[in-house]
Design a protein that fits this description.
alpha+beta; 2 domains; Beta-lactamase Inhibitory Protein, Chain:B, domain 1
C-alpha cells in the first residue's frame, strides 16, 4: 500500500473515531432529556392528582385517584386498543337532598386508555 492510501485510511479512521463518541454522547443526552421529560410529566400527573385535577394523557387509574370512581361508564369501539370511554361524574345535591337537577355533570373522555378531554355540564 502506498503512503497516500495509508494516510487516507488514517484520516478516515480518525474522523470515525472522533465522531462516534460525539454521536454516543448526543444519544445519551437525548435519552436523558427524554427521561427528564417523562419524569416531568409524571410529576405533573402527581401534582394534578393532589389538586384533584385532570391533564391530557392521564390513564384511568390516575383519574380514579383524582376524582374517584365514576357514577357511570359508557364504552364504544370493538377492541381494547381502540376503545373509547366516557366516564360520568355527578356532583351536587343528591335525591335525599331533593334537588338532583341542580347537580353538575363532569364527563371525562378516554381514547385507548388515556384522557383526551373532559367537560362540565350544568
Amino acid at each position: 500500500m502506498s503512503d497516500k492510501t495509508h494516510m487516507k485510511k488514517f484520516i478516515l479512521f480518525s474522523i470515525i473515531f472522533t465522531a462516534i463518541p460525539s454521536l454516543t454522547s448526543c444519544a445519551l443526552l437525548q435519552g436523558r432529556r427524554a427521561e427528564n421529560g417523562e419524569n416531568s410529566y409524571q410529576r405533573r400527573i402527581a401534582s394534578a392528582v393532589i389538586r384533584q385535577d385532570l391533564i391530557l394523557g392521564m390513564d384511568s387509574s390516575d383519574v380514579r385517584q383524582a376524582w374517584g370512581s365514576p357514577e357511570q361508564v359508557e364504552s364504544a369501539g370493538g377492541s381494547q386498543e381502540s376503545a373509547a370511554e366516557r366516564w360520568i361524574y355527578v356532583h351536587g345535591l343528591t335525591h335525599a337532598q331533593g334537588l338532583r337537577d341542580m347537580a353538575e355533570k363532569r364527563i371525562v373522555y378516554f381514547q385507548n386508555g388515556a384522557v383526551v378531554g373532559w367537560e362540565t355540564q350544568n
